[in-house]
Amino acid sequence: MAEPTDISTTGRTGAGALAHRVYTTVREQIIRGQYPDGARLGEERISAELEVSRIPVREALVRLETDGFVISAPRRSAVVRTWDARSLDELFDVRAVLEPGAARYAARAVARGGSTVALERALTASRDSVRSGDAYLIAERSAAFHEAIVTTTGSDLLMAQMRAISGRIQWLFFRTSTLDVETAFEDHSELAAAIASGDERVAEALTFAHIELDRAPTFAALGLRPNLAAEPSED
Amino acid sequence: MAEPTDISTTGRTGAGALAHRVYTTVREQIIRGQYPDGARLGEERISAELEVSRIPVREALVRLETDGFVISAPRRSAVVRTWDARSLDELFDVRAVLEPGAARYAARAVARGGSTVALERALTASRDSVRSGDAYLIAERSAAFHEAIVTTTGSDLLMAQMRAISGRIQWLFFRTSTLDVETAFEDHSELAAAIASGDERVAEALTFAHIELDRAPTFAALGLRPNLAAEPSED
DNA sequence: CCTAGCCGTTCTGTATACAGTTCTGGGGTG
DNA sequence: CACCCCAGAACTGTATACAGAACGGCTAGG
Lengths: 235, 235
What we know:
Four Helix Bundle (Hemerythrin (Met), subunit A)
């Protein structure tokens, strides 16, 4: 069963299908690291590769920019985004704000009779991916689980906010797939249970901890150092 | 002193200027309520009115959709968004998650030596707008103040998250300009002081209270009832 | 050998054109 | 009188075309 691709155009052939296909293709290639960091993504080249005109490519590039995969300046080619410690810290900061709050609302929604099927399905899919050992799939499903938490809140707007960073999260998970995926899955399992229990504070706290405890290992795996402006650096 | 319009294209003539102009124009018209709710925004009609081709109009409509001003389905004209109690509640939910967190990071940034000039400037501009009595200006400056809190964090990503809902906030402020703007300004003043003091918890708590205490009056001013799913409705 | 300025190439920004789909109004029928 | 069907109109999705700006290499000068 094809899950709705949320974005304006579903996967079916027809309206917006081309832009969507371009978006999906380039997005996966970037996540997989097929393009070197900072690679230029000329509209014409992409349109030639995927055999569409430049119009759908333009629309895809706009979405890729809002998703943080490329950076584009006026009159200049879009380039694959390069990540530094600061951007990564910002991502964790936003996650630390958004996801715990979402978990809180999710628990509240469950306590009020909301469904947890999305959460359970995402957890199951995540478990299967771990067993498969496919790093890309694991990253995709893991990011999808975090999205499912927000889905459980039932808020479209919160979901939109989450989607805005979900791509970055998936990218991150793929790049840090050397980390212990088993433990990560157990964390997710606990998290889902907490939300399903309906306890807002536990769900919120656990989500916050899950994210913050992942910050240091992620930086380590990427060979970066957290930009803790707290300690005055002696540069 | 033209403040940088943040988005890819600055206000200056040149690249992206047309799309930006279309975006700004239509956006203001929607906020001011020039279009009836649900009005259809045909690409061709807009392009004719503003004397540009459909291409910049398309790009503007995409941005207007992400900002929540219009809703568009494939092969159908974009329509001005109609707001209901649920969407409004979702907006307040997201604000209650995002803005307190932002205030916390803002206070932290200040405590670590970050600048508060953006905050102070926004506060001053807000005060001036209140004195002017121009409802649109008040709404604009008030929304800008909330953005300034996020600016103070120094996080581009957090700022992007805030911008995604900033338009909705401005729309809301304009529609509820019957509320006591003096009190709102005093709230903002307190908020700025709390952030400037560098106390994370106070800044966070005050922001949360400011938002939540505004929820009920906003609904009342719009003639809606909060969608408190807590109480089982007898429909 | 290195640096600065100029020119060609490449690419984006925008306009125009066409095909397919959706909406709307009128006419016909139960 | 109400409902359904159909044809024309309107609109979006996509392709192609052209103008102007940015980038890269080449040449000239120190």
